[in-house]
Amino acid sequence: MQFTTFRHSVLSFQPSACCLRVERFFLNEMIMFAKIIQMKKFLFYAVGIIIVGLVIFFYARFSYTYSEGNRAGRLIKFSRQGAMFKTYEGEMNLGGVSNAANNSMMMNYMWDFSVADKAVADTLLTLEGREISVHYKQKMGTLPWRGDTKYIVDKVVSVKPDNGN
Fold first, then answer.
1. Of 6, 64, 86, 100, which is least packed with CB atoms within 10 Å of its CB?
2. How many Å apart are CA 113 and CA 90, to the nearest integer?
3. How many CB atoms are closer than 10 A to CB 131?
4. Is the pTM value of this prediction over 0.85?
5. Residue 163 and residue 21: Cα distance in Å, rounded?
6. Any idea which of 86-90, 103-107, 152-156 has the lowest mean pLDDT?
7. Is the pLDDT of residue 118 over 90?
C-alpha cells in the first residue's frame, strides 16, 4: 500500500511556482539566444552584400575600360608631376577649325592624357613637338597613382617623320 501511495504521490507532483519561474526564465533565455543568432546571421549577410557591392562599384568605377582607341596630333607638353604621387601627364594638339581665307587656325582642340607605363613615358619624352598617334584606354574614374585624367595612354602607335621644322 505504501508503494501505491508513493506512485500516486509521484504522478500527482505539481511543480512549485519557483520551478515554473526558473523554467520560464530558461525558455526566455533560449528564445533570446535564438534571436541573437538570427540577428548575427542577418548582419553577416548584410555586411557581405555591402562588401560585394562596393567591390563591384570600385571595379566598375576605376578598373573597367569605358572606351579605347587611337588619337593623333602634335605632342605639345609631357611632364612628370604630382605632389604625393608622381605621374606622367601629357597634352596633345589634335587640330582644330582652320580659316582657309587667311590660312590660320581659329581654334585648337587640346587633349590631356596620363601615362602609367614608364617605358611609354620615356618614349613620349623624346617625341615632344612631333606628330604622333597613340593608343589610349578611357577609364570611368581616376586614381591618384594612375594619373590626373581618365585617358591612359598605353602605347605609341606611330610617329610622323620630322621634316626638320
1. 100
2. 5
3. 17
4. no
5. 101
6. 103-107
7. yes
